[in-house]
Protein 1
Amino acid sequence: MGRMDNKVAIITGAASGMGKEMALLFLDEGAKVVAADINQDRLDELEGEVKAKGQEVTTTIANIADKAQVETMVQKAVDTYGRLDVLVNNAGIMDQFQPIGDVEDKGWNLIMDVDLNGNFYGMRSAVQQFLKQGGGVIVNNGSIAGIRGGRAGASYTAAKHAMVGMTLNTAHMYAKDNIRCNMIAPGSTATNISETYGDLSAVSDRIKDRVFTGMAINPRQAQAIEIAQVALFLASDESSVVNGSIITADSGFSAY
Ligand SMILES: NC(=O)c1ccc[n+]([C@@H]2O[C@H](COP(=O)([O-])OP(=O)(O)OC[C@H]3O[C@@H](n4cnc5c(N)ncnc54)[C@H](O)[C@@H]3O)[C@@H](O)[C@H]2O)c1
């Protein structure tokens, strides 16, 4: 008996890092998983690993910044498996730690498109489906940058803070509709996310002083599977009374 038996779950950003670990873990626990990402090669790798274990996964290319692709992703889950029980809004990219005075429009818009608007599209589509079928669960993957001011740049910090608002509002608005919505706030975790911010050797002295100095008190870096285990709890019925929570998963880094 698995903790996710027969539940249909979409995981965005499922080809790498935390999302990949979530996909593998949810499958092991009996879920039917739609793994969405923009990286076809890594989706193929995931599919290969899953097949080698004798399991099946549905993969789909979906750029969450594109509303139509997000709606198609949700529809694909419903068409394939007949319903949608869980949406994990996990896909995300980082900024390059720029404070507001250094944020360029292009970078701001990209972070908002992916880390905020993309999750909005997914939450809206999922909630509309949940209301038709009588309930469902949303797990947003935020960040401690969504609850603290100095863990990233201005745009990422703003997008992740906005995700707190969307999580709480959705939890409240649909609490009587058998819909739950919670957010994980991971701290530093070993994944491929550094690919999105690239070389940091030339960052400003302000970033070194205000952001990197603080990182020195991080107790340790997490492994992606540790965040996946939190997502599993929030996605499963074990968390049936948990709604509107922001769960930090950072070894206590943000407790300071
Ligand atoms: N790694 C960390 O230290 C850390 C800390 C706090 C929060 N987070 C959050 O965790 C989540 C997962 O990130 P990760 O660390 O596993 O990174 P990762 O780069 O290993 O994985 C992210 C995945 O999202 C995909 N992706 C990126 N843009 C996308 C888009 N527009 N549409 C669909 N898929 C897209 C990437 O291709 C990748 O496969 C993100 O929301 C991130 O903000 C990460």
Note: The longest strand covers residues 179-186.
Protein 2
Amino acid sequence: MKNFNNKLVYITGGSSGIGLASADEFLKAGASVLLIARNEKKLKDARVVLSREMEPEIGARISICSLDITKYDEVQTVLSDQIKNIGVPDILVNCAGMAHPDYFEKIPYDRYEKTISTNLTGVWNVLFVLVPAMKRDSHIVNVSSIGGFIGVFGYTAYSASKFGIMGLSEALRGELKPRGISVSVLCPPDTDTPGMVEENRTKPEETHAISGNVTLMGAENVAKAMINGIKSKKFIIIPGVMGKFTFIMKRLFPSLVFSIMDNDVRKVIKNREKQEK
Ligand SMILES: NC(=O)c1ccc[n+]([C@@H]2O[C@H](COP(=O)([O-])OP(=O)(O)OC[C@H]3O[C@@H](n4cnc5c(N)ncnc54)[C@H](OP(=O)(O)O)[C@@H]3O)[C@@H](O)[C@H]2O)c1
């Protein structure tokens, strides 16, 4: 897909962060968007932000839909209605997600369950309604993460969900190729979003040490990389040089990657022990 004029893009998580930035890029490229998220006020605010930035006619290309993607029956009803009302998506971006990093033993069951049901089952629910309706030459982007190919301290529940997205996307890619539908998986690095602010509240010290002082990527740069990836029909889209480098290192030298991370963890523990003495 080279041209987004008159294309219809459904974006879950479209009211914030990477989803919102993606909506902005698709609108600039001439597409219409449906923003999907739970909180109606945030959706309305997102529509105002997106329309104000552009020509007044843009407003007519933005639809919003309040939906909790973890609720299977609700997803079936609401998305079937959207198909009838505004049409079948040419592009689907499964971006809704959350992270609640913490030490494994401090993650209560309901947090684990919410992480899996939002990041993995929610994507399944949306795909289950939309895939049968999608046509030849359409494109699906499932948002995973660097944490979808490298398990990082503090991200047990999150990585379980995002590794799941990698597997789901890889299998689906093969199934949908004969129908002329492309599947990509987007693996953003740490990105400057409201979600990241939330994430930082519970991140263990060790996780911060592993991330080091990396500069957060702007959500608009992640969105641009995704659009380029769709144009070139890439399966794995990794925005930024560091993310690509990490991917290659993890594939070729997993033990080296583990030992670098283990070393960061050891330093934090040593420091903590020193302070406790
Ligand atoms: N930021 C990063 O550093 C980073 C890095 C790698 C991957 N990612 C992934 O990128 C995606 C977007 O992250 P972000 O940081 O941009 O997040 P964000 O700013 O927190 O936005 C999350 C969006 O998902 C929606 N959402 C959450 N739960 C939902 C549910 N059950 N049903 C429907 N919508 C739901 C939220 O709206 P409501 O709350 O109103 O529902 C919001 O629109 C996520 O999948 C995340 O895992 C992010």
Note: The domain at 8-276 is CATH 3.40.50.720 (Rossmann fold).
